[in-house]
Specification:
Aspartate Aminotransferase, domain 1; 2 domains; binds pyridoxal-5'-phosphate
């Protein structure tokens, strides 16, 4: 790590604390590359490769792995000064220069670079956390709402709410509670597409409901990462991601992200960053590095996963409804699917919502790569994963590897005949063939 040149500048200090402040207009380090003015119009795939260029102070093309927990201060004593209250985290960190970090519970090179890229992809300032749930926890600590309205979805998010109910008496309301039950400062937590079905809910509707009462809308957009969905354009105040899923994308890191609408971020960011220091829920340096490495290919991965999921859903649901044109299924495939599959759920099947207009606006770039298949019995659902060769039977989602999960194993709230499918980057034709041979094998085994 290069030593600093001793210049103390507010922009540079803020740039350290998070990636949310524009990078310096001119490079201050020999190897540093400032973003050119035309970067404002770069597309997401380009930004994922270059938004962190100003934070690369070395000549390395590939991001280096930093593991240090502590960082040397400037060598010039004239720029050193005692800590002041105004140096509170997120406000005015006691750092000496843009290339200097202090302690890894505050910031690290890799996580700052990851935040810079995420900010460019989510279009608003981003703070990373050690997991998706720690991001939700941090938001609740920050807002300390009296009421939170939430629907079905990831059971772990409900677990975080239960913890806050225990601590503060916070009340949990149904997602479709009467708007009059909400008051200023309350929170609607909307997960869309929703876990485990991949079905979509109307963000604008819940944004209007929240704002009519002075409450905030947080969208858990984990199941539709960029470029599939931008909840801010439909009224979200906060967008949350379990970065463990598509942002990480390789089933090897935990990460949470809060992105805050620009005008709120002015006030909120210093507090969120300060809280994070004391919650201690930062990503590790290695995870930050994995995040930078992975997010570079986010668009490539997600677009392919989304398209493949759409084709698999088309084939399975087409077999049930008779709409098999273009699916490549034979009559015998259709009969096999009908013997085993009861129902398929995915946002691509919400034709009424598409016609109504909101779904088309919300997911015009494609649907999420997760869907649910309900089989004709619990026993079939328990057995199918063991018959598949290309789908790992495992929880989680969003990685390059396709996964299938007999969902009742981790979520006691869902029907026992439900399987959750997370489509990876394999060729969808191989994935479909694998499912078909799995169904066939079950029909033979159980003599259906
Ligand atoms: C929709 C959703 N939100 C939040 C989380 C929690 O994320 P993490 O496991 O990174 O804490 C998950 C995890 O599966 C999820 O599916």
């Amino acid at each position: 790590m290069a030593e600093t040149n001793g210049t103390i500048g507010q922009e540079q200090q803020d740039g350290l604390v998070s990636s949310t402040i524009p990078p310096p207009a001119t490079a201050t380090h020999p190897a540093q590359k400032a973003l050119p003015p035309q970067s404002a119009s770069w597309n997401p795939a380009t930004l994922a490769m270059h938004a962190d260029d100003p934070l690369n102070l070395l000549t390395d093309v590939a991001p280096p792995i930093h593991v240090s927990t502590t960082f040397r201060y400037a060598s010039d004593p004239s720029v050193l000064r005692p800590f002041r209250l105004s140096d509170r985290p997120g406000n005015n960190f006691p750092y000496q220069d843009a290339d200097e970090h202090c302690y890894s519970r505050l910031t690290t090179h890799s996580t700052s670079r990851l935040e810079a890229i995420l900010e460019s992809l989510l279009h608003n300032p981003c703070v990373t956390y050690s997991s998706g749930l720690s991001a939700i926890h941090a938001l609740l600590v920050h807002l300390n709402p009296k009421r939170v309205s939430i629907g079905d979805g990831y059971h772990g998010s409900h677990g975080v709410l239960a913890l806050h109910t225990r601590l503060s008496g916070m009340k949990v309301l149904d997602l479709d509670c009467d708007a009059n039950e909400l008051q200023a400062g309350d929170l609607i937590m909307l997960e869309t597409p929703v876990n485990p079905t991949g079905k979509a809910l109307n963000i604008s509707h819940y944004a209007e409901k929240a704002h009519s009462k002075g409450a905030y809308l947080m969208v858990d957009s984990t199941f539709a990462p960029p470029p599939l969905q931008d909840p801010f354009t439909h009224g979200a105040d906060i967008v949350m991601h379990s970065g463990t899923k598509y942002i990480g994308g390789h089933s090897d890191m935990l990460c949470g992200v809060l992105s805050i609408r620009q005008d709120l971020a002015q006030d909120w960011l210093p507090r969120l960053l300060e809280d994070r220091v004391f919650l201690g829920s930062v990503m590790g340096g290695l995870e930050g590095w994995l995040g930078v490495r992975s997010v570079r290919t986010l668009e490539l991965r997600v677009m392919r996963q989304s398209e493949s999921a759409g084709r698999l859903v088309d084939a399975l649901s087409g077999a049930l409804t008779g709409a098999t044109v273009g699916t490549g299924l034979s009559q015998s495939d259709v009969e096999t699917i009908r013997k085993v599959v009861e129902d398929v759920q995915h946002a691509s099947l919400q034709s009424d919502d598409w016609k109504a207009g909101w779904l088309k606006k919300q997911m015009s770039n494609g649907f999420g790569p997760v869907f649910a298949v309900s089989l004709k019995s619990d026993e079939l659902a328990r057995r199918l994963p063991s018959k598949l060769h290309l789908f790992h039977h495992a929880t989680s989602l969003g990685g390059v590897e396709s996964l299938i999960e007999w969902r009742t194993m981790t979520d006691g709230t869902v029907s026992r005949n439900l399987l959750r499918v997370s489509v990876g980057v394999e060729d969808y034709r191989d994935l479909l063939d694998d499912m078909l041979q799995g169904f066939r094998s079950l029909t033979e085994e159980l003599e259906l």
